[in-house]
Design a protein that fits this description.
The structure holds two protein chains of two kinds. Chain A is an alpha+beta fold. Chain A is built from five helices and five strands; from the N terminus they run ββαβββαααα. In chain A, α2 crosses α5. The longest helix of chain A is centred in the C-terminal third of the chain and has 14 residues. Chain B is an alpha+beta fold. Bound molecules: flavin-adenine dinucleotide (FAD) and FE2/S2 (inorganic) cluster (2 copies).
Amino acid sequence: MAQYKLIHWNLNGKDVETMVDVRASLTDVLRNDYRMTSVKKGCEVGECGACNVIIDGECFNSCIYLAVWADGKHVRTLESLLGPNGELSDIQQAFVDEAAIQCGFCTPGFIMTAVEILESGKLYSDEELRKLLSGHLCRCTGYQNILRAVKKTMYRRLGKELPAE
Amino acid sequence: MYDIKALYEAQSVGEAVSLRLEHPDAHIIAGGSDVLIKMREGKLAGCELISIYGIDALRGVALEDDGTIRIGSLTSFSHITKSPIIQEHINVLGEAVDQVGGPQIRNIGTIGGNTCNGVTSADSASTLLAWDAIVELTGKEGVRRLPIRDFYIKAGVVDLHPDEIQTAILIPKEAYAGYQGHYIKYAMRNAMDIATTGCSVNVKLSADKKTMEDVRIAYGVAGPVPMRCPTAEALAKGKAVSAEVVEAFGQAVLEDINPRDSWRASKAFRQHIAVELAKRALQKSIELAGGAL
Ligand SMILES: Cc1cc2nc3c(=O)[nH]c(=O)nc-3n(C[C@H](O)[C@H](O)[C@H](O)COP(=O)(O)OP(=O)(O)OC[C@H]3O[C@@H](n4cnc5c(N)ncnc54)[C@H](O)[C@@H]3O)c2cc1C
Ligand code: FES
Ligand code: FES
C-alpha cells in the first residue's frame, strides 16, 4: 500500500508543497514532479555525484536522500543559476570556455559543488580544490579543465589575478 | 523509488524508542548512506524503516561540565571536522572522518551510522577505539553507556538492544587530555574508496617529552571488527622515545591483528601495511606531541 507525506519546502527560492511517496528519493521528486532534469541519475548509489544538489547550503547526492527529508529545507538545483532571460552564470560560462564539458552528464553536479565552493568566499589551493571536487566522476574530460574552470571563477569572484600555470 | 514497505519518522528520541518497540522488524535509518545502498542492492529490499534523521537534538558536538566531549549520533562527518571542540581536543578524529568517501558523503553520513553498522573499515571506528570512546544508547529503561570496544560483537553486529538507538559518542577527559594522535587510511584511491587498512595511534608523552607515558593503537580491517593491539601497547608504554621502540612497536602489532585475504588485498599485504602504518602513525603522533626521535 502506497504511503504519502505532504512536505513544505523551498525549491530554487520558491516555497512549495508536495505530496511525496515515502519511497521516493529527492532525485525522483526533482525530476518527475518538477522537471528539474539537470539532476541526473548516474549510479543512484551515492558514488558519482551526477544528482548533486545544495540543501540548506551543503551539497548532497539527492539519489540517496529521501524526498520526505526535504520537509522544511531549502533545495537548490542548477536551474536556479540561470538569469531572468536564460543567461548562463559565470561558473557555467567558465565550464563552456574551459571545455570542462563534453557529454555534460556530470556537469550540473560538478557546478553545484562549485557553487558551494565559490559561495564560501575562500581562496583554495589546487590540492584543496581537487579534494572538494572529488565526489564527482567524469568519464569525458579528464578533470583538469573542470578544475581550471572552478579556479578561474574563484579568482575572478575574489577580484584576484589568476596565477600563471 | 526505493523498495520501502513502510517509513516511520521519529522527531525525538522518545518517539524513536516507541517506534522500535511497535515495529520490531523495522531497520533504523539515519543518513541512509549504508541502508539505502543495501536497499538498492536488494539486501534490505521490502523492509520497514524508522527514520531518525529528523531528530535535530542528536546533532552537534559539545563539551560537558566534566570535560567530556559529547558527539551527537546524527552529527555528520563534515560537521565533526569543522567543530572547534574536535579541532582543539581530538583533531585526529576530524581528520579521520574527512577521509570518508567524498564531500557529499561526508555531509550525509553520520558517526552513529558509522559505528552502528559494525563495519571494520569504518573510518571513524579505529580512532574512537583508540581514544577509549564510550557509546551512549537510549532505550525504554533509559540510558546505557559502554566502552566502544564492548559495543562491537562481530562483523556487522553491535550491542544494540531491540528498543534502543545510539544517542551519542562520548570521549571522557582522561581519555584525551594530554594525548596527540594520527590516523592513516591506506586505500587505492584518495577519494571514494574504502580502507584496505586503517590505523589510528595516539600517545601521551612525559613533561620532558622523552618518555611515552601511554600509547594506544587501533586498526580497521585487521580483523572482523575494529581492534586494539594490547601487545604493542604494553611494549611501548613507559618506554623512552626512540627509533628502536617505534620499530619494535610496529613488529609487535603482528601478535595482535588477524587480517584476512580478500579481493581488496591479501593477508600478507595487509600485515606488511599494518606494521608500516603503526610505525608511521606513532612517529607522527610523537612529533605532534612535541617529541623527537
Ligand atoms: C559512496 C559512498 C562512499 C562511502 N565511503 C566510506 C568511507 O570511505 N569510509 C567509511 O567509513 N564509510 C563510507 N561509506 C559508508 C557510510 O557513508 C558510512 O558508514 C556512514 O557513517 C553511515 O552513516 P549513515 O548515517 O548514513 O548510516 P545509515 O545508513 O543510516 O545506517 C547505518 C547502520 O547503522 C544503523 N544506525 C544508524 N544510526 C543509528 C543510531 N543512531 N542508533 C542505532 N542504529 C543506527 C542503521 O540501522 C544501519 O544499520 C560510504 C558510503 C557511500 C554511499
Ligand atoms: S546518481 Fe546520485 S551519486 Fe550517482
Ligand atoms: S562531461 Fe561527460 S561525464 Fe563529465
